[in-house]
Design goal:
Helices cover 29% and strands 29% of the residues. It is an alpha/beta fold and 199 residues long. Strand 6 (171-180) and strand 7 form a beta hairpin. This is PD-(D/E)XK endonuclease-like domain-containing protein.
């Protein structure tokens, strides 16, 4: 299956002021847990000055991808979707089928301009140099909307970029693993990417 290249940071690449403009307004709002601004805190005894270092924003991979790669219908649900418990059980089943080199729930983070991006990849097999993003579903996989798959690819590509940065890899195989919670059948869709081809 051929997928369209997705630049998960395309809005920031076009104009970094757009990123600042979109995220600066959150200082006046209650923040969702996925986006947290961080900046150096000045002691109260000093006059209020603009910080010398730019504000940094911490964003979850999923939230970033939903913000930048979402197309089509705003409703991201794929009906009928598994419950949270079914999804957790499905992820555990997939992890239990992997070899000794498999690391489940791999925490990754990295910096890109004003963003610190972090999240947890579902699994990485060091022996095969394969990073996996597991998606559970019920029903027919062919009925899954294309915009959902595009979002899934965006997520695994960001995780792949973070992994390449951490391990200084020149390339990695990315795999979307679709797990049917009823039949317990896996459908893998793989692509290899060089570390510079993510962008």
């Amino acid at each position: 299956m051929t997928s369209q290249a997705v630049d998960p940071f395309m809005f920031a690449r076009r104009d970094s002021r757009l990123l600042t403009g979109r995220l600066s307004s959150i200082h006046n709002l209650r923040l969702p847990s996925a986006v947290t601004p961080t900046a150096p805190v000045k002691p109260d005894s000093e006059p209020a000055l603009i910080s010398e270092s730019p504000a940094r924003y911490v964003v979850a991979v999923r939230a970033l991808c939903e913000f930048t790669a979402k197309v089509g219908d705003l409703d991201l649900r794929f009906t009928p979707s598994p419950t949270a418990q079914e999804g957790i059980a499905g992820h555990r089943t997939v992890a239990s089928r992997r070899g000794a080199d498999y690391q489940a729930e791999l925490s990754l983070s990295g910096d890109y301009r004003e963003l610190t991006v972090r999240g947890r990849a579902d699994g990485y097999d060091a022996g095969r140099n394969q990073l996996e993003e597991v998606k559970t579903y019920r029903g027919e996989l062919d009925a899954m909307p294309a915009n959902h798959r595009q979002l899934h690819w965006a997520q695994v590509k960001v995780y792949g970029w973070l992994l390449c940065q951490r391990l200084q890899l020149e390339q990695v195989t990315l795999a979307l693993v679709y797990f049917n919670i009823v039949s317990e059948q896996e459908t893998l869709i793989r692509e290899s990417f060089g570390s510079i081809s993510f962008f």
